[in-house]
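Structure (tokenized):
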């Protein structure tokens, strides 16, 4: 029995040593998959040299699915010979479910759309300094990806590039980036903080939606546009300051489900507060509504039960869509409505606004009343 155990130990150790790093030089582009199949022992760490094409990349994906063993891939020394030699093609490693880490070729400038979509075991990707563009959905649903260091020149990042990367804890965005595109970080549940470069001027639809661990975010002064749902369901977000220099600010569901948000001063560009803008922001105690706001829509403050202060800067009462639904579950007996001087009478007559027990005037725009 003892001899059998020794034999099994030696055998397993031999297999493990044989399954260590394998170097494959591809002399004929398109032949890598057949080369991998020639090995009787599954490859767990693969270094590739020579010239490869789209078929070789697909071959790596097929091999990882077939053998369920491939963990690391080093492409840093290869040359891509078909199509754009500086690009990882669209869907190149789509559903390569058993790749744990990958080094991309030196000199590439772009990663195509869906290139690593659903690589569910991918934990890290080493990107070359030459990289300039990351396509739409490039790393979508890479649920094990924990960190990402983007090269300084990677200033073009597409929609949903990192959406669904729920283990992603940190990412350093490059200076020079101008756009946080639609749903770029949607569902990145583990990110706690993210630095937005001062060069960014656009934050897209649902860009950070579902980032449930995000507790703080600083919006640069150069941001001119924020689209609907940008911070939806960021339930750990306690505060956020929107620059008053913003030009376009969409509010539909933008802060919906931000259960830890305590206060908000809306920028002058807020022309309307749209559907479910602050739905279930149950920790929010104070909201300031600018004088340019002409309409508040259904569900805007539904579930904001902690509200104690509303500052309405518009002299004439703001029009409410479906009056009873705008402030549903807001305690109007405990929430003070502050309005401009000489407008209290109008607010006391206006539908829904008149339901607030405490309406006080203040001198706008000189100063808000002192907190009691």
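Design, position by position:
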């Amino acid at each position: 029995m003892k001899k059998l155990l020794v034999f099994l130990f030696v055998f397993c150790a031999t297999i493990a040593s044989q399954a260590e790093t394998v170097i494959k030089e591809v002399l004929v582009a398109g032949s890598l998959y057949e080369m991998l199949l020639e090995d009787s022992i599954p490859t767990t760490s693969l270094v590739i040299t020579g010239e490869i094409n789209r078929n070789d990349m697909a071959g790596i994906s097929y091999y990882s699915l077939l053998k369920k063993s491939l963990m690391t891939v080093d492409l840093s020394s290869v040359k891509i010979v078909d199509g754009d030699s500086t690009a990882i093609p669209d869907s190149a490693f789509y559903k390569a479910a058993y790749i744990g880490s990958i080094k991309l070729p030196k000199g590439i400038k772009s990663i195509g759309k869906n290139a690593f979509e659903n690589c569910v075991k991918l934990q890290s990707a080493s990107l070359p300094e030459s990289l300039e563009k990351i396509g739409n959905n490039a790393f979508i649903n890479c649920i094990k990806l924990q960190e990402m260091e983007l090269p300084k020149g990677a200033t073009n990042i597409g929609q949903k590039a990192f959406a669904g990367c729920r283990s992603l804890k940190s990412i350093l965005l490059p200076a020079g980036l101008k756009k946080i595109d639609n749903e770029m970080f949607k569902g990145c549940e583990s990110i706690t903080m993210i630095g937005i470069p001062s060069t960014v001027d656009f934050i897209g639809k649902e860009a950070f939606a579902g980032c449930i661990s995000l507790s703080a975010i600083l919006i640069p002064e150069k941001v001119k546009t924020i689209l609907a749902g940008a911070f939806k369901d960021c339930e750990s977000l306690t505060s956020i300051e929107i620059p008053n220099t913003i030009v376009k600010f969409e509010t539909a569901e933008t802060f919906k489900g931000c259960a830890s948000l305590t206060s908000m001063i809306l920028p002058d560009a807020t022309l309307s507060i749209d559907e479910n803008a602050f739905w279930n922001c149950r920790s929010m105690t104070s909201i300031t509504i600018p004088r340019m706001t002409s309409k508040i829509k259904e569900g805007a403050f539904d579930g904001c039960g902690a509200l104690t202060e509303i500052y309405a800067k518009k002299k004439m009462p703001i029009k409410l869509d479906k009056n009873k639904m705008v402030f549903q579950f807001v305690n109007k007996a405990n929430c003070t409505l502050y309005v401009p001087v000489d407008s209290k009478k109008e607010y006391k007559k206006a539908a829904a606004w008149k339901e607030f027990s405490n309406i006080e005037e203040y001198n706008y725009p000189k100063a808000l009343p002192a907190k009691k």
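Reviewer-requested clarification: The two ends are 82 Å apart (CA to CA). Confidence is low (pLDDT under 50) at residues 3-18.
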